[in-house]
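Why does residue order matter? Because the sequence determines the fold. Keep that principle in mind as you read this record.
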Amino acid sequence: MTFPRARKGRLGYDIDEVEDFLEDARRAYTAESPDVSVVTADTIRTTAFTMRKGGYSATHVDAALERLEDAFAARERERRIALEGDESWYASARETAQEILDRVVRPKGKKFQRVTVLTLGYSVADVDGFSDRIAGYFQSGEPLTPEDVRTVAFRPQRGGYREAQVDYLLDTVTRVMLAVR
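Structure:
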């Protein structure tokens, strides 16, 4: 057994799905040619498993996936630097960081599209507050870790920010943070 199981009566990640994904990740990590790999740092970050009683502990699997994502990101960075060179790699990361910064320094309440007042989105105040932390990280090196970005949670709000946009930005922030480690 790769991970501890969820406590009795609790839901955990489907064991077969987790094991299949980890096997795919092992094959991808050891593949000679990165072009044939279907598993990347991005796919690891966005992977989801079915919840089942008696499944693997979500906390343990999530922690392992974060370490796996870090390892894949480092390997992807090394391969791209070997192909393109340091300057090109960091120029691309800087360009993406600037796009993020341009978004998060927009006026409060206007950083992302809003959903209708009949629909739940992310709390505008919560997202704006976290956006300030992201801006501080990129502008002046204030402390922020990939773990902070991966685990941030926003309260729901009618008429709040469109979740897909915010989630995409958070994924991009994580990608940039891992790219320049």
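The mean pLDDT is 92.
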